[in-house]
Amino acid sequence: MTQEQQTRKGNAIANTYGRVNNLTSHERFRVSFCTDLDKSVLVNNFEKRGWSQVGSDDDWNFYWACVQSCRGIFSVDSGYRMNDNQMINHFPNHYELSRKDLLVKNIKRYRKDLERDGNGLAEKAESNWSNSASTRYLHLDFVPITFVLPADYNMFVEEYRKNPQSTWIMKPCGKSQGAGIFLINKLSKLKRWSREAKNAFHPQIAKESYVISRYIDNPLLIGGKKFDLRLYVLVTSFRPLKAYLFKQGFCRFCTVKYDTSVTELDNMYVHLTNVSVQKHGTEYNSLHGGKWSVQNLALYLEGTHGKEVTDRLFGAISWLIVHSLKAVAPVMANDRHCFECYGYDIIIDNKLKPWLVEVNASPSLTSTTVTDRILKYKLIDNILSVVLPPDGVPDVRWNKIPSQDALGNFELLLDEELASQEDNSHAHHNKNSRSLGNRWK
Questions:
Q1: 236 and 357, same domain (yes or no)
Q2: What's the pLDDT at 303?
């Protein structure tokens, strides 16, 4: 076979972004994968690339792991050291972003650091929220006022007493899918819960802390129902920060119309959008799963509020995501073997202001509808195209700058490396322009 024939054969075998046919080991580096999740959207994507499945104790190149397995791999006791051709889908301390208490702590620290540096992003203004005067951040006000219990109990009580009519939402810090969440509108209810929950407010004994946040009680409603947004954000590096937004997110609707009355305060079908909660309701529709695409939401908002307002809202959502990532970047253990796809949950209020509710490190890959399965299959396919070098073989030495074609349905939110290069290029261009200008003076 001539050199030209061999090249043609190689091009036919390995097409763009690492999608390959089944190859023998002597023809190409054979990528091996393992996963803790028995999800078809994962396994089918891996096998489509000609990868072979192995166990976690075998030699693997790509590991889609649950957070517990990731914790084991990165623990000091394990002594495990990854080589240049291995990748895993979590950063060692991903919980700095996905644990509710740590997310709030990191955002508060981020604000204070910017404030101390005199950065205009930390500018504050007087605010009259529900007739109680307070100061708020003009630009970084995207997380509801939140306290960690039991540590911040006294501060919470002080805030609560400024507006005793307010409603608050309690969430266990380390749980997901709506588990353990409830609403309160009276301090007595919180105290009663504390007595009934064994050792709930005893810091030395309590195994789990809670966050209590001001409830967004004026959500934007569609068809009279509350909804939130689930958006997927891919981070390939925290230093420099490289983040991408998947353009095919969706809305999750409650099955029961929104009602702020005291009688409905404990009705989670009114207040919680989690599919894991709503699917048990009698009004749940298994065909559409109570979901609506982000594209449909944008069309609806353009029709009811206009394109300019809609564009401003989605710009604010991108802003919110970028600054939540910047808030955790300094404390995140950046590892070139890692990437992470976070599930962002965002609520839009009736003034079209987005609020960050929480961030999930392991967003569900379970498909509840046909549309869901197509979306999540495409999500995984696009993730692999972005995180892998053009030849499809995991390699930490790659600069993690994918081509425009490789992005698929992802759009770049921020790449600090590219931004730095552009800044340097502009500075160099301006310097040359000034020197040429001076020459003629």
A1: yes
A2: 97
